[in-house]
């Protein structure tokens, strides 16, 4: 179907009171057997699929707006709109709707929903009382007119009748002429009445009246009437602001007069809605729904007209990227694009997709790369806003551009590195811009939005690119503001109180907290890449230096980073933590915090509680072996005693497993067999053995070890496994089902724990043991 008169866009109103574009097609009215009535059908122009099938109900209120819109409600909270390309097509369908409902096509609305009681009263009135008779438009009758307009607002049917009367007699323009007279005479009473009249007419919520009131001839007088609010001692000066303060800047001359007029009108109407009119009450919030729609469709039209003018946009981009362009001109160009992108938010997904693809094809991202690196703060801020629109629309489009940048280019000028540097160099004390940019970076590196069916390798390729070219830029402030362990110890020599790091500068601490938040996100979502980076750079050690910060929020960020790493329950991470002795700064912070019950205390306790609950054996053994003496005095929570309990349970399991293997191998000598029999008799099984008091276990264990040493001291100092394999109690070779290496490994596991009665070993290690220190690292 090529008839442009019937070409329409279908809109539905969403929960946020915004119009969603459902597609473009051609409308027809025909009898549908299934619906048993004349219906409106819209078929998509792309594939002929059915976009809309709506029966014209006799009781539905259809409303015609702006000559090319038909709006109606099919159910509660489900509004529909048809936006016609041509007025003739709208008139044609409107006549069909009115024909089905038996209404006059001259009306702008077929009927209004009214409550039952009002309908009954209305039916009882004589026919002549249906008409609203307007008083003559004279100065002396302004109070009467104001009372009339105010009184009809509570009645939908009377609002409709008043709107018809105002349109039919050209009443609006006559009222605005009276405004000019009252202002010349400084007639404040008349001006106050005109404020009530114009405000009431706006609340009639009729598109036909808006067309008149917001025309070039009338809109400034409408604004003038709204300056004289009776509640104000002095009138506002809205017209002065709109004509003198607010300047319309054409970065490139707009030759289309219709487009220029539409831009002016939209700005002024938006100003009326946002600035002049008071915030609607609960009972008035629906009175201006048509005004919102009026602004919405104006913005859609402006964006469409600009987007179709390829010559205009090409010239804008050419000047934006031209090195010869003056800074002031470039600032105006960037602000234009910011406003342009803001208007595009009124477009629906498919139209917004076309809009941003047009900008991408014209080179918006290379242009942003240039302007975001400029010194002008206003230009950078506007460019950041534009970049946020692009990232929100399509992170993949931005990632694709970034990876296509020439590899020979200096890393510093890559778009993402420009963004990171702008985040790092944010001069705002509250880091408002840095927070915004951090959110954009987070979106770009989030694997959740990299699962596009068109590019299945996007995640791997982009993350490899990011960690190769960008991660060092992101972590540079963190590494610059922390000192590695050797330098930290050197700084502490000769000083009892020195903070080797931790900028006292609050703004720097905030920046480091933002970077840590992003790195914590990476730990959770980039398992392989971030793990490699952390271990290669020894990053966790550097970050834990921030536990010394006087800014508690920064210490918490460092702790949260470590907590997220431990939460991965990855043995590679665990071995890295154990090898680096990285619990020490955390435990030092806990001990320094003393008995204060605060967030830092709770966060550290929760870290150890997680290790206990998840039974991370390697970390439990490390903590108990190295730090339990420093922690055992903490009794207000049972976390550390619980860790010791887990440790002892694992020790018991190791011992019992060893004994079971040895019995199965049938290599035990008579003394060992006797010891085990006595042990079983005394304790009535393994369950009782586990419940014996802790101080009794080392004694039994000592007896066992003495017996074992006697059995193990064979010729040439061979291990017990070899001796047992060569001779059994009866002098014959013992048969073993387990490999000889098994016993060696299991024997090594016995030494996992130091026991209180191993006095010789304790005396040798006492000076070096971290458990003996009142504060770790001192």
TrEMBL record:
In its UniProt entry, what is this protein called?
Serine/threonine-protein phosphatase 4 regulatory subunit 3
Q: Which family does the record assign? A: Belongs to the SMEK family.
Entry's Gene Ontology BP terms: DNA damage response
InterPro entries attached to this UniProt entry? ARM-like (IPR011989), ARM-type_fold (IPR016024), EVH1_PP4R3 (IPR055236), P4R3-like_central_dom (IPR006887), PH-like_dom_sf (IPR011993), PP4R3-like (IPR051137)
Biased-composition ranges for Acidic residues? 672-686, 755-767
What are the residue boundaries of the PP4R3 EVH1-like domain, all occurrences included? 5-101
Question: Which residue ranges does the record assign to the Serine/threonine-protein phosphatase 4 regulatory subunit 3-like central domain?
Answer: 144-649
Which stretches does the entry tag as region Disordered?
672-778
A GO cellular component term found in this entry reads: protein phosphatase 4 complex
Tell me, what does this protein do in biology? Answer: Regulatory subunit of serine/threonine-protein phosphatase 4.
Q: Where is the composition biased (Low complexity)?
A: 710-736
Biological source species: Salvelinus namaycush
Which terms does the record give in the GO molecular function aspect?
A: protein phosphatase activator activity
